[in-house]
Every structure is written in C-alpha cells, then in structure tokens.
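Chapter review. Work through the record for Sugar ABC transporter substrate-binding protein before attempting the end-of-chapter questions.
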Amino acid sequence: MRRFKSPCGLLVLAAVTATAAALAGCSSDSTGSSGDGSATVSLMIWDPAQKAGVQKAVDGFQAANPAIKVSLEQVPEDQYYTKLDASLGAGQGPDVMWQSSRAPVYVEGGALEPLDQYIEKDKVSMDAYPDKLVNLYKLDGKQYGIPKDQDVWSVVYNAAVFKKLGVTDVPTTGWTWEDMVRIAGEVKAKQTSSADVPMYYNYDFNRGVGSLIHALGGTVVKDGRGTVSSPQGVKAFEMIKDLQDKLLIPPVKDSADFKGTQSLLSGSIAMAKVPSWELSLLAQANVPSGTFHMVPQPSVNGSRATDTNGLSYVMNANSKDKDAAWKLIKYLTSDAGAKLHAEGGASMPANVSADVKAAYYKANSKIDGMQASFDVTLKDNYLRTTTEFPKTRSVMPEIESTVAGPYYAGTLSASEAAGKVDAILTRSLKQ
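Structure tokens for Sugar ABC transporter substrate-binding protein:
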C-alpha cells in the first residue's frame, strides 16, 4: 500500500477507508457537529489578495446556514503545503481546503474525500465548470474537487503613465509581440528615472517561456519527455532575453521579488503581464477610473496562447463533519458563492454561468477592457505544464536556478538552455 509522507515524517495511508481506521484516535482541526445539529468547519486558503472574497462568500454561506460556523485561515503560500502536510499527516488538518495540481499526491495518500456521492445526491452539475478544470480533480474515476477559479493572463497598462510620458502609442486588443516591443521602447525613451522600466513580462520558464513555446506552435512535454529543444523552444527563450537585453523589463537576476502589480500602481512601469488572481488589487485601488486598461497577451505567430490552472475546494478525508464540509464546498462553488467571491475580490471564477461572469466584470469595472480581453484569452489557453504534468512541479526551481539564471546572465546559449531543460523535465517525468 502506497503512503504519503509529510515533512514531519507522519504517514497517511493511501486508501481513505484505511486512513479512517488508522487514525481513529485522531481528530481534525474542526470541532465537528454537536447534538443540536450545529457544526464548526475549518477552511484553509493561501492567497491574501483573495481572502476578502473568500470571506464574503463564507459570510453568505453562514447567513444561509446559521447552524454551521466556518473558521477561515489564510496561510502564506510558501508555508501552506508544509503546514497542510504536517496536519494531514497527524490525522488533523482543515475540513475544507484549497488544492492545486498537487492533488494527485494527496489522493494517493488518502488525505482527500471523494465527492461523487455528494454530487450525485444533490444533483450538482459539473457542466457549470470548464471540463479541463473538472478533470484535473477527477482521479481514478472519482471526483475529488469542485473548481474554484481559473487563471487568466492579460496585459494591463497604466494610462496615466503613458499620458505623463507623452506616449500616445498604447496597447490595443489586436496588438502583436512586435507592437509590444516597439511601444515598450517608446516608453523607455521617455522615462527619466533609473528606477523605472517600461514593463514587466513573466520571464519564468513555467508561465513565461512555456506560453511562448505554445504560441509559437511547439510543446514543452510530449510522449513522456521534455521537448523544449525545438526551434520554438529556442525562439521563446530568445524572445524574453531580448526584452531584458533591451532594458524593457527588469534584469531577471534582480526580479525575484519584483511585483508587477505594485509597480503598475506606483507608476514605475507602464504595463505588465498580470494574472487574474491579482486583478482585484488594481480594481480596488484608490485611483481614478480609466487609469488601468487591459488588453490580451500580444499575438505571437497569430496565437495568444497563455497557460491556465484552476484551484479547487476539496474535503479532508478525516473531517469529523463531512456533511457540513460538503455544504460549504457546494455553496462556495455555486452561482451564489462564486458571485460573492467575485464581488469581494478573487480570481476569475471557474463557475461559468452568465450571472457569475457578469458579477466578476462588474467588480473589476475600474479596469477598462477586461471582458473583451478575457473573451479573447479564454479561447486560447492551455493547461500549465506543472498542471498537466504534476511531476514537473518539483523541478521548476531547479530549472530557474541552474538553467534560466545562467541563460539570462549570458553564460548559456538558448539552445544549451533548452537542452538542459529537456533533461530535467524528462528526468522528473520518469520518477
């Protein structure tokens, strides 16, 4: 029987039934239900930018279910899985939690509860969510998560910065990569502070280089091996390094802590590639309407391919009150719950109902052009490499430190970098 081993060395048996038996003497973080029908359910998330949206949805749930109290905990992302592993390994942990493409590890370890019986009982339609996200959490024929959101990447520009600099050539819905480079160059020519740069573009391999490879018509993984050593892979590396070498983006070596969204707010950059989970920071900022405008990713080879991923709400297999936990999951991902997420500040909901999408666009209406941009982008996204191939997740830091770093520093050629990435990816896929 396979086992999931937490960083603390505690074991969670692979089968859910075996887990329940082995951990019969343990208790989860919740207090469970009492004799009067009341219950306390714990919920754990990681993103502080989305906490307000989650809390608003939780408040809505508690108003509709006054007998159930929800305890919401936001743990910093770099600590989330460490804390989760330790608590689940001890037979405890939150009743409901966010989960990502790491879900297969937790399913194999028996830490997550299959939701099929609840879905069937309450006649929850999974058609409300994109198939690619539903299937991320369907393992061995069982559904373990209900999708919460979907990642969408777009470019946002600060119109006030363009106006201040006197640059009238601004990004448009139909722009190309060449247009982006030209516009960034015009911005750079007008900037006077050494602390300012024209733009931020995601340079990391997983979400930057990988997107360009797909847009160029290539692949990152195919037939169980890395496939970056291709004309498309080499070109993708070269395109981002060209932005750095022309001083259009911050030097990669200095970018580990660079925040594109915060720099847009401060005006130290004119435009940035921004993920959907950070857009509420711009939409809720104390700036005049019309400051921020959104356009799709610039087309490359006629494509605007960007990576996507989707978090889900999942249930702890050792929860003391699974009925209450399920009620929370069902509500948070329903039309009502997804609308409240959007209104409070959250990533683009995975629930694709017209009312939910309308609520999301209304909540972010201070960002001009969002709906038109998303309408384009959502048609041309693909599952992120680490999402479609979870085994590659563990080697992404290695790729950044041993390949991307030296490449952007000029000590590796693009073809050498692509070859090294393939070797690392192939090794991970064989593990």
